Structure formats: structure tokens, C-alpha cells
């Protein structure tokens, strides 16, 4: 694996490896990489001046009113060498105006701005996450997915050979793309897998999440399978979350740790949780951005439903892993793999820091397992519940000016427009549940 640090090194590497074009990748509003293929003959100009960009090609519904360009980040450049006949290069980009100023509708630039402000306050975040997915046979029948108790026929995978090929392809591609992982393992459900990312900066983790999702999709397609990141693909199975694990350092000291406090958690840790709790119902519109997301966040599920925090309760919104000292972390568990990680992290980090600044204390920790408790008891220990539907989450986002200020007017309006359109599509459709119940 070769590390490229300068544009001249990138140009030399492209020439030495006989690369004909480079994929310029950027995040759309929904958190999916779009890409333009740039010939290597234009590469030097592209790095110095950017690549002219038509916003309609990137899945954006708004008019920019000005010319914008794709500006590549040289630190993200890598040559993907999977085999002798499979070699290409890619680089992650941001959307900028011609004068180099960030474009307000760029999710990656938004997270960079948030992180820069937090850094100027003396704080540094280290973040990890895990990307969960299901591998399906490409010919699965979605309408029959609930009818097989073992899910082998309509779910899981076509055959073990194909699954193993997909797994090896994913691992090779992750290594080639310089995505550092801690593990790649099976999940609890049949056909479920998870890629656990090694911790890094907020921007690096968001880049890696989108890269991992693209690699998984491409690898599954290559070997005749289908990878889904749908938060809740089956009623009878647990859904797909994407938890964020965060530690906060100041002057190289973990701000969440205090040896003399209860649970060895500092006041800053509690304030950080308090800030997230204050804004979590609006954050859900971005961290859980589909109608299907709220089929996962239901009562009697291992996914969070109540706004609680705990060192032991597996159903809490925020869990505190057992490690202390420099390794003290907070794990936020509601986000799912359909979200845009640049935008979700922008809101989570900003909300947490605002809690520290405002010294917001959350409700008391629920340091016992609640799975056998009644729903009324669970609610009494909580600071409320997460939204029950997508439309409820969006209404909370619309009412939370703090969150809209973090993302800016353009992204906030885009999120609301996209959400309203999805909800309108959903409520205008007759679904199988209704047919089974009423027809």
C-alpha cells in the first residue's frame, strides 16, 4: 500500500501504475458516493482548479445560483489494485465555489466546518463505528421474506462459495482503499454481517463509512448477490444499526474520564449526553432518515426506543463501554446505515459540545437491565422516547433551530424537502399489511 502525500506524488503514481482515469467521489444529500471519472491527462488541472460540476448530476434538488466545482482532497487519494486486470484510482472531493469557498450544500464541507470550530475550542474527537448489512440472493422474493422460518430460501445468500468470494473481495478492496478496520464478522441474524472500523477523526470515519458501503455493494453485485442497508428489512429480525462510539480529548486528556466521579465519568461526559438528549428527536431526522428507520426503533427491540443512558442496559440510547482512563467512550446507538454520516456526525458532535457549554445534565443513568420491565416502568426511567415515525422526527427537526443552524439553510431545506417527498410517497401507497388486514 502506497501513501500519497502530495499532488506530484499522485501524478507520479498514476503514471507508474498506468491509470487511465481517476474516480472523483463526493457525497450526495442521502449519504451515497456519486462520482465523475476524470482522465489522468486532466488530473493536474483538476487538483489545482477543481472539476466543473452540474449539481443536477449529484442528486441535489436545489439550484446553486453560482458555478461550483469538485475539489479533491489529496489525502484521500488511493490506487485500488484488486488484480492484474482491475486497477483504478479514486479521490474524495468536496463541493466548492470557484473562489475555493465551501459550498453550503456539501455534506463533507459541513462536517469539516463543525470539526474545525470544535478544534478551535480545544477539543479533539476520536470516533469509531460499524457498518451492518445483509447479504441476499440476487433473486430473492421480498414479498416472501417473512414466510421462511429459516430464511434460507428467500433470504441469506445464494451459496456459501459466493458469500466467501464476496467477503474476500470486500477485504481486498478495504485494504486497497486504505480503510482501517478492526474486524469483519457475522451478525446475530442469518445473512447479517458487520464491518467494524478502527477509530479515527470524524472526517476520516465518515469517508470510510461511505467507502465501505460502496465496496460492499460492488462486491455483492460482482458475485451475483445483493447487499442491503435497509434499517429493518424483516419484521421478525433485528434491524441494522450504525452506532457511533466517541471519545473527547482536550490537551491530550480524555474529557469523559474522571477517576473520582461516579462511574468514573466526568461532568463533561454527563453534559455531553445532556446536549445530545436535548436535540435527539430532531437529530433522528438525519440519523434515521427513512420511513423504514422507525420500524427498527420500536418498543421491545434491542434498538433504542427510550431516551436513556447506561453502563449495562443493552437497550439504552447511549451506552458507556467499560473501559476507563484514556479509553473512556460514549456510544450512541440510534443511527442506522441509511444515514449520511457527514450530516449525522455534524449534529451529534455539535449537540454534545453545546451540552458541555450549557452544562446540561441528563436524567439519571439506568444501570440495570430493563428488558423484563414494563413499558411504563421503562418510560419512567427515561427522558422521553425517540420519534415514533419519520414525519414526527422531521417535525422535531423543523422546530430545532440549533440543528438547522449547524447544517445551514441550504442543507436543512434539502433534508426537509427530501423527507416530505418520501413521506408523501409512503402514505399514498397501499402496503401489504393493509391488504392482508383489510381486503
TrEMBL record:
Record keywords, A-Z: ATP-binding, Ligase, Nucleotide-binding
SMART domains (alphabetical): Gln-synt_C
Matches recorded under Gene3D superfamilies: Glutamine synthetase, N-terminal domain, Glutamine synthetase/guanido kinase, catalytic domain
UniProt domain GS beta-grasp: residue ranges: 17-100
Keyword ATP-binding appears in the UniProt entry: yes
Enzyme type, top EC level: ligase
GO biological process: glutamine biosynthetic process
Domain of life: Archaea
GO MF, one annotated term: glutamine synthetase activity
GS catalytic domain boundaries: 107-439
E.C. number(s) listed in UniProt: 6.3.1.2
InterPro entries xrefs: Gln_synt_N, Gln_synt_N_sf, Gln_synth/guanido_kin_cat_dom, Gln_synth_cat_dom
Family membership noted in the UniProt record: Belongs to the glutamine synthetase family.
Name of the protein in its database record: Glutamine synthetase
Amino acid at each position: 500500500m502506497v501513501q500519497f502525500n502530495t499532488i506530484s506524488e499522485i501524478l507520479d503514481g498514476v503514471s507508474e501504475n498506468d491509470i487511465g482515469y481517476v474516480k472523483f467521489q463526493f457525497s450526495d444529500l442521502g449519504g451515497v458516493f456519486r462520482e465523475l471519472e476524470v482522465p489522468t491527462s486532466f488530473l493536474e488541472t483538476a487538483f489545482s482548479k477543481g472539476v466543473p460540476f452540474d449539481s443536477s448530476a449529484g442528486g441535489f434538488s436545489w439550484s446553486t445560483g453560482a458555478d461550483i466545482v469538485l475539489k479533491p482532497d489529496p489525502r484521500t487519494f488511493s490506487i485500488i489494485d484488486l488484480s492484474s486486470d482491475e486497477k483504478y484510482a479514486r479521490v474524495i472531493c468536496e463541493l466548492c465555489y470557484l473562489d475555493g469557498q465551501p459550498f453550503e450544500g456539501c455534506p463533507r464541507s459541513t462536517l469539516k466546518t463543525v470539526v474545525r470550530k470544535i478544534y478551535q475550542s480545544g477539543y479533539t474527537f476520536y470516533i469509531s463505528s460499524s457498518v451492518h448489512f445483509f447479504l441476499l440472493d440476487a433473486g430473492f422474493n421480498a414479498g416472501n421474506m417473512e414466510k421462511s422460518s429459516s430464511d434460507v430460501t428467500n433470504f441469506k445468500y445464494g451459496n456459501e462459495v459466493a458469500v466467501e468470494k464476496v467477503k474476500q473481495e470486500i477485504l481486498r478492496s478495504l485494504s486497497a482503499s486504505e480503510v482501517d478496520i478492526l474486524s469483519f464478522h457475522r451478525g446475530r441474524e442469518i445473512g447479517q454481517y458487520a464491518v467494524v472500523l478502527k477509530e479515527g477523526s470524524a472526517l476520516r470515519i465518515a469517508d470510510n463509512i461511505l467507502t465501505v458501503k460502496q465496496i460492499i455493494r460492488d462486491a455483492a453485485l460482482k458475485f451475483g448477490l445483493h447487499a442491503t442497508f435497509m434499517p429493518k428489512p424483516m419484521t421478525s429480525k433485528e434491524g441494522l444499526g450504525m452506532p457511533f462510539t466517541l471519545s473527547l480529548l482536550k490537551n491530550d486528556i480524555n474529557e469523559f474520564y474522571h477517576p473520582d466521579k461516579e462511574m468514573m465519568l466526568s461532568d463533561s461526559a454527563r453534559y455531553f449526553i445532556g446536549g445530545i438528549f436535548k436535540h435527539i428527536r430532531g437529530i433522528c431526522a438525519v440519523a434515521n432518515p427513512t420511513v423504514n428507520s422507525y420500524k427498527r426503533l420500536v418498543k421491545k427491540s434491542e434498538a433504542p426506543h427510550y431516551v436513556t443512558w447506561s453502563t449495562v442496559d443493552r437497550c439504552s440510547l447511549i451506552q458507556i463501554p467499560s473501559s476507563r482512563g484514556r479509553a473512556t467512550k460514549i456510544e450512541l446507538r440510534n443511527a442506522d446505515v441509511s444515514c449520511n454520516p457527514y450530516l449525522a456526525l455534524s449534529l451529534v458532535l455539535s449537540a454534545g459540545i453545546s451540552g458541555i457549554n450549557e452544562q446540561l445534565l441528563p436524567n439519571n443513568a439506568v444501570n440495570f437491565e430493563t428488558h423484563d420491565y414494563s413499558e411504563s416502568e421503562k418510560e419512567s426511567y427515561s427522558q422521553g422516547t425517540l420519534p415514533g415515525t419519520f414525519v414526527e422526527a422531521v417535525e422535531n427537526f423543523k422546530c430545532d433551530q440549533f440543528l438547522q443552524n449547524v447544517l445551514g439553510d441550504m442543507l436543512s431545506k434539502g433534508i426537509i424537502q427530501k423527507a416530505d417527498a418520501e413521506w408523501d410517497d409512503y402514505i399514498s401507497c397501499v402496503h401489504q399489511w393493509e391488504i392482508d388486514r383489510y381486503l
